[in-house]
Design goal:
Number of strands: 11
Order of helices and strands: EEEEEEEEEHEE
Distance between the termini: 39 Å
Structural class: mainly beta
Largest sheet: 7 strands, mixed
Mean pLDDT: 95
Helix content: under 10%
Shape: globular
Strand content: over 45%
Oligomer: single chain
Radius of gyration: 13 Å
Length: about 130
Amino acid sequence: QLQLVESGGGLVQPGGSLRLSCTASGFTLDTYIIAWFRQAPGKEREGVSFISSTDDITYYTGSVKGRFTISRDNAKNTVYLEMNDLKPEDTGVYLCAAGKGRLPIGLIMEGGGLERWGQGTLVTVSS
C-alpha cells in the first residue's frame, strides 16, 4: 500500500520546538517533491514548506521563514520539518504530500499537482 505517514506532533509551549516526520511506505520519496501543509481549526489549509526532488531546493511561507527547516533523509525514506520558536498561530493539523514533476511554487503551495497525502499530525502550541 502506498502511503505517507506523519508523526511527531504534540502539545508544546510557545517558544518550544518540534520535529515532524513524513515517512513513505510502498514507494521511495527521493524522486518526489514533498510539501508540508497545515490546517488550523476553522481555517483553510495553508502551504508551509516544500523541498524539491532532485536538488533539495526549499521554500517556506513567510510566517515560518527563519523558524522552520525542511530536510530529507533518503536512507530513511523520510522528510522532516523542524519547527522552532513555535507560536500559538502555528497550531493545526500538519499534513505532508508528495508530487512529481517540475511544478510551479504557487501550485505546490496550494496543494496542486500533489498526488499522495498523509492523514496529518496535530500540533498544539499553548501555555
